[in-house]
Amino acid sequence: MSQFTKPIRSFAAHLVAAAAISAFSLAAVAQGASAQTARLGGVYDVTVAGLKIARGSLSLVVQGNAYSAKAGMEPAGIGTIFSTGKGGAQASGWLGRDNVRPSRYTMASRAADRDFYVDIALGGGRVKSADVTPKLKKSPERIKVTPQHTRKVVDPLSAILMPVPANKGAKNEAVCDRTLPVYDGWTRFDIQLSYKEMREVSGRGYDGPVVVCEARWIPVAGHRPSRIKASGIENRYMEAWLAPLGKSRVFVPYRIQMATATGTLVVEANRIKVYGGKDTAAR
What we know:
Layout: H1 5-15, E1 37-48, E2 51-63, E3 66-75, H2 79-82, E4 86-95, E5 100-111, E6 114-123, E7 126-133, E8 162-163, E9 178-183, E10 188-201, E11 208-221, H3 225-231, E12 238-244, E13 250-260, E14 263-275
Antiparallel strand pairs: 1-2, 1-14, 2-3, 3-4, 4-5, 5-6, 6-7, 8-13, 9-10, 10-11, 11-12, 12-13, 13-14
């Protein structure tokens, strides 16, 4: 995997998944759609140290509480110099009152002349099957993924959906009070969010307040501790800017950033367009 794809795949796996980084507004119309069908299309930019390296795309359909999304990523800007790799991901499932219940996740990408593939089926709050390529190399150091690790998890793409109960008096800051249990087919990890501050943003399809959460990546299983320590990934600063779109209590990342050895990695919407549905702020 090239130097271009390594930081993107690593960060995406922590919060938005490889080849799914473009799906920031996945739930923008989910609770405002009722039984109607709503569709969303978007284009997203990925930069490192201010230089554009990739472009993401998204198509989404939400009907009632069911969602289905397809996202893709390809090199752009200076990224075309260092990599010809590209990939895509799909996810589907249902939105609960305060959680997400995914049913299927697939991802396929090619980078540095290698193919990466994931097919995960979920149901009843657990992973029913998982097919991945390539397989993890055997190592006595690697922490084994057990059935317990694959219960009550979400796939990387569905992990960006953050419904919050409309409790009386609940503040928007409460969206940061959560831990996302993610399984990507190879590894199991948590993303722990905590409240930092409120900000105002404009443009890119959303104008208004965002909740800024600090994010911490916590390895659970499937990893090699020595590799994690050497990479320093646990100590890298990450944050997510979450926007309440429309009148719903669904929050989605407006911007995600992470410190890397080569500069700050930023994933941010370039333009978003919604078709159908109602009470949405993304236009």
